[in-house]
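Course assignment 3, question 2. Fill in each field.
Student: A.L.
Task: Predict the tertiary structure for the chain below.
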Amino acid sequence: MERMSSRLRSLPALAALALALLLGSGCGGSEGGDYGGSHPNYAKALAGAPAPLAAVYKQGDKLLGGGLSAYEKQIAQLRGYPVVVNLWASWCGPCRAEFPSLQQLSARYGKEVAFLGVNSEDSSDAAATFLGEAPLPYPSYSDPDKDIYDTVGGIGFPNTAYYDPSGELVYVKQGGYGSEADLLADIRQYALGSG
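Answer field:
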């Protein structure tokens, strides 16, 4: 009986260790990302962007408040340009894994397409820390109550929403992109219309 009691007392410690290992290797870790590594020279890549897009990129890496109304106002201000919106959270492994592709393609296509982020179900501190590790040329709207997420029709994380130049939501990719080529194909099809 004494041995069984000793084993039962050690179960919580083992469970805590297993949870720590799981979080360190999955959603909370930086596996699969380019964090702290190289990223495009956004100033050089986006120099000469049209004024509405340049105004967005002046806010790169910022977490913007204002919720759904500020987000909708921004989409309206970008009429005339297609918009790609990535809905993410810093704790989400697939979100983190696709950030290097978003870094590369936003630098490559940012003069033709507006890019935005939406950070949901996350703490501002964790999101800001992650953006410091994986900088983006565009801002993300804070969405703690998931109002933007629900309006877009998000399911799980990440999601990527595509708006046409008239501001109409035309497609939402639910789940992460497996490769930069997959993200590029959707940008070409749903943002640039060159499928």
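Instructor remarks: Confidence is low (pLDDT under 50) at residues 3-34. Residues 44-191 form a domain with the Glutaredoxin fold (CATH 3.40.30.10).
Grade: pending
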